[in-house]
Amino acid sequence: MRWYLRNYNKRDNMQLEEIIEKTNQFLINEIEVEPDCIYPSANLKDDLGIDSLDFVDIVVLVERNFGFKIKPEELADVHTLEAFYHYIEKKVQ
Fold first, then answer.
1. Do residues 49 and 9 make contact, with C-beta atoms less than 8 angstroms apart?
2. What is the number of domains present in the chain?
3. CA end-to-end distance (rounded Å), the chain
4. Tens digits of per-residue pLDDT, 3-48?
5. The domain spanning residue 29 has which CATH number?
6. Residue span of the structural domain in which 48 resides
7. Dihedral through CA 44, CA 77, CA 23, CA 33, nearest 10?
8. Distance (Å, rounded) from C-alpha 46 to C-alpha 17?
């Protein structure tokens, strides 16, 4: 029982560092963003080249990696990678 509670609490209190690491990994490996382009102020569309088809893939990847579904209306004000990290952080806590 303790093991379950320990892991449950870890998932609920996912650190921003872990979110950044997982997000960067799937952006590089699955969306094929160049690692040099990944920095907090990078614009998702302009700097990272993420298009509407990539966003569909990102929705699936976020659900797989973080356990929640993205609501498109919630991303209306998310323009930078840093804002995306914080959006995920808010949703997993």
1. no
2. 1
3. 22
4. 333 444 444 457 999 999 999 999 999 999 999 999 999 999 999 9
5. 1.10.1200.10
6. 2-92
7. -10
8. 24
